[in-house]
Amino acid sequence: MYIVISGVHGSGKSTLALEVAKKIGGIYLTEAVDELVAPPQFGPKSKEKLASQLWHARQVILKEKRVVDDKEKYLCDRGWADIYVYSREILGGKERDLFFSIIDFLPKKLPDLHFIVHIDPEALKKRIDGRKRDNLESWGEDDKEYALRINEAFVNFAKDFQDLRPVYLVEVSGPIEENVKKVLDIIKKHI
Description:
Elements: E1 2-6, H1 13-24, E2 27-29, H2 49-65, E3 74-77, H3 80-90, H4 93-103, E4 113-118, H5 121-130, H6 136-139, H7 144-161, E5 167-171, H8 176-190
Helix pairs in contact: 1-8, 2-3, 2-4, 3-7, 5-7
C-alpha cells in the first residue's frame, strides 16, 4: 500500500508520516540524500525557484522508485500534490509553463491513500514560529501569508480530487497523537 501525506510546511506532516509509519509497521519515505543534485534554496525567496521545484520533483521520483513490494506499507512525506501546489505558488510565467510541460508527462504512481493535511491558520502561525531551523527566514518559511495561501491551496486540491480517488482532508491543528489516530482510523478502513 502506497500512502502519501501532503500539506503545507509547518503543519506537522513529516512528523505525522513518521509516526503513522511506526504504528502500522510501514516504511517511511522522506527526501533522499541526493549525491547527484544538491538541494538548492527553497521557498518564495529562492533565486533558483525552477531548480528547487525540479529538485523536489526528482525527490518524489526517487521515493516512488522505492515502492517495490505490494505487501509493504509505504508512507511518503510529500508527493505530486505538493509539487503541483507549491509550483503554482512559487513559479510564474515561462518558468511555470516549462516546469509543467515537463512534469505533466512524467510517469507518476498514484497513492492508494492520499492524506491532505490542513491546519487552522493560528495553529500554523504558532508552529512556524516554533520551528528551529536556520533557513526559516532565508527560505521564506516565516512568511505566514505565503504559508496560508499554500495551506488553502491544499484544501482546494483535496476538494477537487476527493470524488475521483481516495483523497482525505485531515485537520491537524491538534496534538500529534490525535492527528495520528485520525489517519490510522482511515487507513484501517482500507486494509
